[in-house]
Amino acid sequence: MSQKIVIIGAGFAGLLAALSAARLRNEKGVSPADLTITVVAPEPALIVRPRLYERDPASMTAPLGELFAATDIDFRAGWVDTIDAGKGVISLKGVDGAAEMLPYDRLVVAAGSHGFQPPIPGLADFGHSVNDRAAAVALDKHLQALADRPASPARDTVVVVGGGFTGIEVATEMPDRLREILGQDTPVRVVIVEHGPCVAGDMGDEPRPYIEARLRELGIETIVGSGVSGLDEGGVALDDGARIETDTVIWSAGMRASPLTAQLPGERDTLGRVLVDPDLRVPGAPHIFATGDTAKAATDDKGNFSLMSCQHARRLGAFAGHNAAADLLGEPTLPYDQPSYVVCLDLGPDAAIFTRGWSPRTVEITGPEAKKVKMEVNRVWIYPPAAERAAAFQNAFEARTVDF
């Protein structure tokens, strides 16, 4: 009887989990009929989420059908409703609405994350985001439609809530994008509202001055130490009583792990991620591995943990898929590690910043040279490998073994 690995999710972690499991299966000379690998996701495509802040977000997908076929990975279109760890089965709803039960011998939960929106009045009705493809496409359509409205300060103003990585990349994209839509002479205004004491709070003392200077160069205003208390059709109200007239509010303040993690045993952090064992196994569920944005995993022995980023998701996925297959094939599982951490933050049309390390972060490249690196990351490095067996397996091996 064949053994079954089921992977929930076709994002960065799910894709690398599938390729890594298939690579080990191939290396050990095991037939795909004897060890099946099935990816469950709404569509056989990778949503290139790190690029959703850019122009034309509808195009930020990479098809996976040919890649899966080349590596003998099965695909099942649908959404997972429940995980029954005791029975070793998941229930899913297909794209046609039909319910199905899918058994597994090893399960990899790579279901990703979603944007978190607190119950702020008007946020659900008037806020936008780039947390997923549908939201990013809706924002893009909204921005394009601004050209049909009469000129006004509200039309020409974008407020970005959250001064972290996503908020900064969204905000620095906006001035040029608005002028393309509204006209080069339009007095556009972009404002970042950050509840904390500064923007780029996680970047540290060395990178932050460059980021702040770049924001000033682009004419982007920052309001720190204040949150949002409400939105309406014409603007946004802040905690301190101030109001900004705007037709466009983009929420970028917070993510949460997939709700499926609530069905897994073990401890979770404030983001909903499962605290996993060193080999990414879920404590109390020996046949389940959590990875990507659903897992909180130690990256080293210095107290650092994985983050919700494609950089960590790819490597986490590679370890999880390898370990799921190894567990079934009688091979030892491997402890996940990711000792290096780099950030390449986009800062508008002609600049970026590249840093290395956790704390303190060291600035290695800035300006146009860092922008070249960012473009290489966004357009090449994070995309799936070619739909060719050897290249795909090499990509999976490097995702697990090559450090930055």
Automatic annotation (TrEMBL):
Signal peptide: none annotated. Its EC number is 1.6.99.3. GO terms for molecular function: NADH dehydrogenase activity. InterPro entries: FAD/NAD-bd_sf, FAD/NAD-binding_dom, NDH-2. Gene3D superfamilies: 3.50.50.100. The keyword Nucleotide-binding does not apply. The keyword Zinc does not apply. SUPFAM superfamilies: FAD/NAD(P)-binding domain. It is an enzyme of class 1 (oxidoreductase). Residues 4-315 form the FAD/NAD(P)-binding domain. Keywords: FAD, Flavoprotein, NAD, Oxidoreductase. It comes from the Bacteria. Belongs to the NADH dehydrogenase family. This is NADH dehydrogenase. It comes from Sphingopyxis panaciterrulae.
